[in-house]
């Protein structure tokens, strides 16, 4: 349902609706290594850095956060899917930085061009762009 907030009753308050994702926070046990990985992909640091316990990267209106947690790496839990302006250019950038994407960019039957990459802590990130 993509409807705007709807009234709870004719005279009552409106029901709240979820509007967007502000941030995704991923755990790392090695902040310097994780920061290098995300910087190599072009994520600009908004707060923190390699020697901090918390780092935030800004992209669009959202953030990708890293937090030091001794329990990392994690078991596979799913993936974060981020839209980018050019999937193939980002794939080439990853290769040039010595990173190892899971596969070459491909066109999916659901209408996106995409590839996956796994960060040093086992978090799977997908970079995608809708096909037009």
Describe the 3D structure.
The chain has 132 residues and is of the alpha/beta class. It contains two helices and eight strands. The strands form two sheets. Strands 1-4-3-2 form a four-stranded mixed β-sheet, with helices on one face. Strands 5-8-7-6 form a four-stranded mixed β-sheet. The protein is globular, with a radius of gyration of 18 Å.
Architecture blueprint of SSEs:
Elements: E1 23-28, H1 31-40, E2 45-47, E3 54-59, E4 62-68, E5 79-83, H2 87-96, E6 106-107, E7 112-118, E8 124-130
Parallel strand pairs: 1-4, 5-8
Antiparallel strand pairs: 2-3, 3-4, 6-7, 7-8
Pfam families: Glyoxalase
GO molecular function: lyase activity
Protein name: Lactoylglutathione lyase and related lyases
Concise synopsis of the structure shown:
By secondary structure, this protein is of the alpha/beta class. The protein is built from two helices and eight strands, in the order βαββββαβββ.
């Amino acid at each position: 349902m993509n409807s705007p907030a709807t009234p709870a009753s004719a005279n009552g308050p409106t029901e709240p609706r979820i509007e967007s994702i502000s941030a995704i926070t991923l755990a790392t046990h090695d902040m310097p290594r994780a920061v290098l990985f995300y910087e190599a992909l072009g994520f600009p640091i908004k707060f923190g850095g390699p020697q901090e316990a918390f780092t935030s990267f800004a992209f669009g209106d959202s953030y990708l956060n890293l937090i030091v947690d001794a329990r990392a790496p994690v078991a596979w839990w799913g993936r974060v899917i981020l839209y980018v302006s050019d999937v193939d250019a980002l794939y080439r950038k990853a290769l040039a930085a010595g990173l190892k994407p899971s596969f070459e960019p491909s066109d999916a039957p659901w209408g996106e061009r995409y590839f996956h990459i796994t960060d040093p802590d086992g978090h799977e990130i997908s970079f995608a762009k809708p096909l037009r």
